[in-house]
Write a structure and sequence with these properties.
Keywords: Membrane, Transmembrane, Transmembrane helix. By secondary structure, the protein is α+β, with helices and mostly antiparallel strands. Bound molecules: 2-acetamido-2-deoxy-beta-D-glucopyranose (NAG) (2 copies).
């Protein structure tokens, strides 16, 4: 600039302005550099995204309740017509004047075995996940799609952990036994006589990204619904239930745990309407 000012003396008055422009350009370039470097660092340090899903929308249950068929009252034949429409089946008894009404009642199962298949996927090509660990799968009864009345059925604490290379997935199958009397009784009370019910699965996991930069472990929570808890194998056309990260939920999800039941015989309940 100093040389130029001697050679083009006549344009001297423009130089302060040019100097200002030069400084401004330099400032903008520096700011942009800082922003770009910041973005690169942020992206590099951001843990990889994991996508969870529940295979075949299904949580397998070996049973949900046990059925006790009680022969209840014997009813005079002339009254039985009225009962026929309501409940149970009628069989003729030895007495032609009387009929026996049998009505199933349901009692809580002694235990329920549950099994669920969880898939974890690292869909983008940016980096590998060094480890997914500390996985908890919580099965919640979902009585309404407004998420009201979510109730914990069982929480699986998985020992399993695994890495997830970029653009790869890992599916695991895990089983657990429900023997909490309060939960067994709750399922019978609500779903006695039914072979399945609708649930939500909550997945908690800790993610450690491996590349490009190893990150601090991040705890993530995902929700998967609807999922069917049932005794029947899903058909071949059964879809997968995708899970949604908690940050993408419109409102926070909360669920209740059933109060523990004291010792004593499991209650026997009438069938659901
Ligand atoms: C394990 O997960 C729970 C949430 O499910 C979290 O509070 C805890 O900090 C995690 N522990 C580790 C070691 O990541
Ligand atoms: C699941 O993770 C959330 C968020 O970290 C935590 O508040 C909750 O206690 C965890 N639940 C279980 C059962 O680990």
């Amino acid at each position: 600039m100093g040389l130029e000012s001697k050679e083009h003396g006549g344009k001297r008055t423009r130089f302060p302005c040019l100097v200002t422009v030069r400084y401004m350009v330099a400032a903008v370039v520096s700011v942009l550099t800082v922003v770009v470097v910041g973005m690169v660092v942020t992206i590099a340090l951001r843990p990889q995204k994991v996508v969870f899903s529940i295979l075949r929308q299904h949580v397998y249950a070996d049973t949900l309740w046990s059925s006790v068929t009680t022969k209840t009252t014997t009813v005079p034949a002339e009254l039985s017509a009225g009962f026929r429409g309501r409940a149970g089946s009628l069989s003729s008894s030895s007495n032609p004047q009387q009929q026996v009404v049998t009505k199933p009642t349901y009692s809580a199962a002694a235990k329920i075995s549950l099994g669920v298949s969880l898939t974890a996927e690292n869909p983008d090509g940016r980096g590998d996940i060094e480890d997914i660990n500390n996985i908890t799968i919580i099965v919640l009864d979902l009585p309404s799609f407004s998420f009201k009345g979510l109730t914990e059925i069982h929480s699986f604490q998985l020992q399993e952990h695994f890495p997830l290379m970029r653009q790869s997935s890992h599916t695991l199958w895990t089983t657990a036994t429900v023997n909490d009397a309060a939960v067994l009784s709750y399922i019978t009370r609500r779903y006695g006589g039914l072979r399945s019910f609708v649930a939500m699965v909550q997945v908690n996991a800790t993610i450690v990204s491996g590349t490009p930069v190893k990150t601090r472990p991040k705890v993530v929570t995902h929700y998967c619904w609807p999922v069917i808890v049932g005794m029947d194998e899903p058909g071949d056309v059964a879809k997968t239930t995708p899970c949604r990260p908690s940050e993408e939920m419109e409102s926070p999800v909360s669920y209740s745990q059933l109060p523990a039941l004291g010792p004593g015989p499991a209650p026997t309940v009438a069938p659901a309407a």
